[in-house]
């Protein structure tokens, strides 16, 4: 009885051992190490459309997915405060222009005539004062007139000479018009006002958002009627003629990814292989994935970012599509 029980135990042990061996052999042949998969994705150059001035979205001329050409108007912003500043700048320019024209034209004819008449009046007064002094001086020399009377006449004569010179100077100044410095200052004020108008006009032009290059509208952020701030992105434009694929490659596979090398990748969405040329390879840094070569760890394998461009244009390749390389 005891011998039979021992035989049963041994039989069960050997049966289990045989099952384990068979499963191990099957697993070795069927579950062997498969190929390493390096997966990447397609990317394209994108630029953001934004405005220098804050405003409210008045109208969109495009929708997501639309193709655009460089210079196409994409949207219009409403900025009433900018328009008010433009009106102020234009009014300041008109005022500066008027002052400049006044400086160039010189004194008004009425003012010039008045200055001339004052000079003629002073000349007449000087002539009378001179004659009066000469008569008084002769009488003084003849002993008829006192010295005091002669001095009074002389003082009057000298005063009229000063008055005539002053009137002549006023007339000359009126005839010559504004000074050279005043004219230069007036001209500078005009240029300054023109600069202010040009500056505000540039802000007005920023309310019309245009495409900087050909592409496709990939994303629009605000809605019509929403306020957007200075420099806020309005939409993204993808340049589909400038595409590449990006892979994160562990450094033990980098020998096949040297810059300039050609590689092949399978694009599942297109169900075809694509020939690529490596253009960029750079370290992803300490934040990227590391893998230990041994559990005890002698050194770690870093991950590198590899970018490759299609050798030929790939029809229907879109940003975000996966690409697979088997190693």
From TrEMBL:
CDD domains: biotinyl_domain (cd06850). It comes from the Bacteria. InterPro entries: HH_YbhG-like, Single_hybrid_motif. SUPFAM superfamilies: HlyD-like secretion proteins (SSF111369), Single hybrid motif (SSF51230). The chain crosses the membrane at residues 9-31. The keyword Membrane applies. Keywords: Membrane, Transmembrane, Transmembrane helix. Residues 82-201 form the YbhG-like alpha-helical hairpin domain. Gene3D superfamilies: 2.40.30.170, 2.40.50.100, Helix hairpin bin. Coiled coil: none annotated. Pfam families: HH_YBHG. This is Efflux RND transporter periplasmic adaptor subunit. The lineage of its organism: Bacteria, Pseudomonadati, Bacteroidota, Bacteroidia, Bacteroidales.
């Amino acid at each position: 009885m005891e011998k039979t029980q021992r035989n049963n135990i041994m039989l069960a042990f050997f049966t289990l051992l045989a099952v384990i061996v068979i499963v191990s052999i099957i697993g070795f042949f069927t579950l062997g190490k498969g190929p390493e998969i390096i997966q990447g994705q397609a990317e394209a150059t994108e630029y953001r459309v934004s405005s220098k001035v804050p405003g409210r979205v008045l109208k969109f001329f495009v929708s997501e997915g639309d193709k655009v050409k460089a210079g196409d108007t994409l949207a219009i912003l409403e900025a009433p405060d900018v328009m008010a500043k433009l009106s102020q700048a234009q009014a300041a320019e008109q005022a500066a222009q008027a002052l400049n024209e006044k400086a160039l034209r010189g004194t008004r004819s009425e003012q010039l005539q008045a200055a001339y008449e004052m000079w003629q009046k002073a000349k007449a007064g000087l002539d009378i004062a001179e004659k009066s002094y000469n008569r008084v001086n002769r009488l003084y020399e003849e002993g008829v007139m006192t010295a005091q009377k002669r001095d009074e006449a002389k003082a009057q004569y000298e005063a009229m000479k000063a008055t005539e010179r002053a009137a002549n100077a006023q007339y000359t100044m009126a005839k010559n018009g504004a000074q050279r410095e005043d004219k230069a200052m007036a001209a500078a004020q005009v240029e300054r006002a023109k600069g202010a108008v040009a500056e505000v006009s540039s802000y007005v032009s920023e309310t019309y958002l245009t495409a900087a290059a050909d592409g496709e509208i990939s994303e629009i952020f605000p809605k019509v009627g929403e306020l957007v701030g200075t420099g806020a992105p309005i939409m993204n434009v993808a340049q589909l003629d400038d595409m590449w694929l990006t892979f994160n490659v562990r450094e033990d596979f980098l020998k096949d990814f040297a810059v300039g090398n050609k590689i092949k990748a399978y694009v599942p969405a297109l169900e075809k292989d694509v020939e690529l040329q490596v253009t960029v390879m750079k370290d992803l840094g300490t934040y990227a994935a590391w893998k230990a070569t041994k559990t005890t760890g002698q050194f770690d394998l870093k991950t590198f970012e590899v970018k490759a461009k299609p050798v030929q244009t790939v029809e229907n390749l879109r940003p975000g599509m996966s690409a697979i390389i088997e190693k």
